[in-house]
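Long-time lurker, finally posting.

We've been working with Chromate efflux transporter (Paenibacillus yanchengensis) and I want a structural starting point before designing mutants. I don't trust myself to interpret raw outputs, so I'm hoping someone here can both generate the structure tokens and explain anything notable. Sequence follows.
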Amino acid sequence: MKQNQTNHYFKQLLEILIVSTRLGLTSFGGPVAHLGYFHNEYVHRKKWMDEKSFVDLVALCQFLPGPASSQVGIGIGVMRAGVLGGIVSFIGFTLPSVIALIIFALLLQGLGIDQAGWIHGLKIVAVAVVAHAIIGMARNLTPDLNRKTLALFALVFTLCWQTAVSQVAVIIISGIIGFILYKQHTESDDSRIHFPISRGFALICLSLFFGLLFLLPILREATSLSWIAMFDSFYRSGSIVFGGGHVVLPLLEREFVPTGWLSEEAFIAGYGAAQAVPGPLFTFAAYLGAVMEGWQGGVLATIAIFLPAFLLILGTLPFWDSLRRNPKIKVVLMGVNAAVVGILISAFYQPIWTSSILAPIDFAFAAILFSMLVYWKLPPWIIVVTGAIGGSLMTLI
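Top reply, 14 upvotes:
Generated this for you. Predicted structure of Chromate efflux transporter:
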């Protein structure tokens, strides 16, 4: 019996690794696009969680610093197979871009690959994927006029004030408005999010997060070891950033370029390479670490920048289900979820739409890819390959 349980558990881990690695190889377009890929894979295809649980998890990750899409992936892995499931999910989603950036980014510096036709095609793929995700979420999460209005408020506010603070402010304000509008609302919710980790373990993770945040700078000053200085810079950058990979770039540039760790040209060339690979933009740290200290530096930088996100999501997940089932919290989340829809639409326009749809032919190609995904029900990897080929062909027209 125990042997059967062990075999079943390892099969679960293998399935998580296969699915997350496929997403890691095909998820282009930044954090919002990643959530679209996750939504399509985990909610619609695999049915590992329902729509509401997915959006609640997204809302939690929006509150936490770090790469939200990676945290969502970790959370889904934890729900499926515990802490080891979260680790496997993270490795599968992150490792392809880490390997690509360590091996290829150094070879492709200065070649302007971010302007290549196939890269532009992959950006258009992101338009189709995110549009599909937003339509589905809006249908379920903004069913009445009040929540449609909240989504519109979030859209307008985050478009006009494009900072990470604005997203957090909108979520807080929408939660308060949701509580006021729906405090008499009663809705039965039998769904449960199961996180097979204890609250004691969660508190250890939170303590470790804050402990490292304060201890690493002290160790850096007390020693002259370069790897401690690197680990501190990457860990601190990953700990204090809201809003995804593009927001962390100025922090990383400030940490490493003025101090002489690498040149401005090398930094910009690496950013171009990072745009060419799938997965989270936080893996840009792997490129920076590899430039400074070889492949070992790339591995160290990757661990350091993602560790805060890992500790935070493991530290908050065990408390999340009981909070979301509380009647008062539930009506707050009704407002928050509507705001998430507006924030996603805002991010869909800027930067995804504005950096991808530059001409009528781009819009036409996006419409074709959207139809392939939504109406013809083709697998996402076919959409990605079609986007890359189509982007290359469009440069010849």
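Before you design anything, note these points.
The chain has a mean pLDDT of 84.
Residues 284-325 form the longest helix (42 residues).
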